Amino acid sequence: MLLDFSSFNWSSVAQSVLNGLAFSIMLTVAATAGGVVLGIFLALARLSGIRVLKVPATAYVNTMRSIPLVMVILWFFLLVPAGLYEAIAGEFGRNHRSEISAILTFVAFEAAYFCEIVRAGILSIPRGQSSAAHAIGMSYAQNLRFIVLPQALRNMSVVLSNDQTIG
């Protein structure tokens, strides 16, 4: 018989599928968490009036959003030196280069998209909210932390949960 799979070890296939599923879930969680954190910092840099912060953040976001994910994966896997992974994670980095490369790739890629979502969320807050915070003596950092970001995160929570490159 040409296609006889009766002697094939199906248990090893099932284990590989489960390992792949576990890694995909871990990668999704890590990329989302890291992407949101880095995206918030990028959005604040893009909204900043400081040119030294604004220009590189804008260049990074525009570059990452304009190239395909496959290209970014290849860049991080082939062009980032193997020694960097070892420096980041020690012995684990040497043995798990592809996993660390995948996590860094997706965090870097997701951060560019989350940056635009966060920036739009911050810009959606009426200017009067910031003016009121300034009027009662809040600093810029306090204004962002207590007034703007909580409202902006609530406004963009649906988009943040919906915009997943991996899932």
Automatic annotation (TrEMBL):
Keywords associated with the record: Cell membrane, Membrane, Transmembrane, Transmembrane helix, Transport
Main location: membrane
Superkingdom of this protein's organism: Bacteria
Coiled coil (residue ranges): none
Name listed for the protein in its UniProt record: Amino acid ABC transporter permease
UniProt xrefs under CDD domains: TM_PBP2
GO cellular component terms given for this protein: ATP-binding cassette (ABC) transporter complex
Naturally occurring in which organism (per UniProt): Pandoraea anhela
Domain ABC transmembrane type-1 intervals: 21-167
